[in-house]
Amino acid sequence: MLHKITSLTVRDVRFPTSLEQHGSDAMHTDPDYSVAYVVLDTDCGLKGFGLTFTVGKGTEIVVCAVEAVAGLVVGKSLQEIVSDFRGFYRLLTSDGQMRWLGPEKGVIHLAIAAVLNAVWDLWARAEGKPLWKLLVDMDPKQIVSCIDFRYITDALTEEEAVEILVKAQEGKQRREEHMLKEGYPAYTTSCAWLGYSDQLLKQLCTDALKSGWTKFKVKVGADLEDDKRRCRLMRQMIGPDNTLMIDANQRWDVAEAISWVSSLAEFKPLWVEEPTSPDDILGHAAISKALAPLGIGVATGEQCHNRVMFKQFLQASALQFVQIDSCRLGSVNENLAVLLMAHKFQVPVCPHAGGVGLCELVQHLILFDYICVSGSLGNRMCEYVDHLHEHFTSPVVIHDAHYMPPKDPGYSCEMLESSVQSHQYPEGDVWTRPAAGTEKKSK
Ligand SMILES: [Mg+2]
Questions:
Q1: Which residue range or ranges hold the Mandelate racemase/muconate lactonizing enzyme C-terminal domain (predicted)?
Q2: Shortest CA distance to 33 belongs to which of 49, 57, 3?
Q3: pLDDT band at 436 (very low <50, low <70, confident <90, very high)
Q4: Residues with catalytic annotation?
Q5: From ligand 1's centre to the CA of 349, what distance in Å?
Q6: What is the pLDDT of residues 239-298, one digit of tens each?
Q7: Among candidates 278, 329, 328, which has minimal Cα distance to 300?
């Protein structure tokens, strides 16, 4: 069967999470978690589902960008695409006219991520495997053939990438079995969103500890005295041996980041995440250097545009934790490049997740990283946020604070049709029915 793609539909789906301050941080004070949701139809009835994540307003712009690239996908067969996936990636990212909108960054790149995520989902479904297993079963040359090495060969060549993957074949089977049995270690961000009260934070923390969580992240950056109080409270709750991370979501200038985080050093955070502009590579390098003596690393990546930026962060020793994102980069193809570069530079990958569907997607990539690239769990963990999983047909399974490997074929981002319809913006029930005295922020 050819699996010829006959149509691409995209919908604007939004969840009113701002009503309860879920997801709130120092810069995104009232996010309505949203997705541009893509469905590919094929001539044989198989479908591919993909999405990219946004925080509310402007999702319609991403939808429009997806529609702009749809013509490059519809009419192609899955076989045609995956037999030259590098070429197809470049077709989407380097269209002679549309690349002016990026290139490989911003709205157009988010849109391409949604489309490519759907193509990968379709491929995994056609093979009857969860996406992580599709990747694990590929031979090194085939994996590398999906990556566009343009702009990164000064840091990682195709030959080096193959070498890394070949070397990691040893012990692969054992690591796959380990993951199937134990799962991949996770940390939680659900306890300490910036808009949560101390009482709610304490309650959520107590519940999380009871469920086996040992690694926690706190949002910081709005007010230093508040941050000290919240970090102290969190440290008291979790004890001296559990892991604490702090996340400023790009709030500070470089010098401010250094002094602010130094004031929080007594709470022993493992890392500070996004201390400053996500584009400021040299700023991150300066912060990394200043915080190293305090034992605090710098983590970033959820708004890192592309593999070229990650390359420079790594070359400049500007981060100590690489936070890949399944919807910011150009899907699996570009994430593979970053995983391999991170391995070469010996920097652990700790993916960004949460939002809508990000946990469902990125778990596949980090499983692949452990089984086929890094072979290590040292200083590695995947973010987890306990919101909105009920809207997916194959939601993540967390057991004892570990992601259990998905078993269903695909990339785990198919949503329940009833959820899509009721949350479609602006016509879905959630957005049109009288809202019991609440204000919907997205509009
Ligand atoms: Mg973050």
A1: 198-294
A2: 57
A3: very low
A4: 219, 352
A5: 14
A6: 999 999 999 999 999 999 999 999 999 999 999 999 999 999 999 999 999 999 999 999
A7: 278
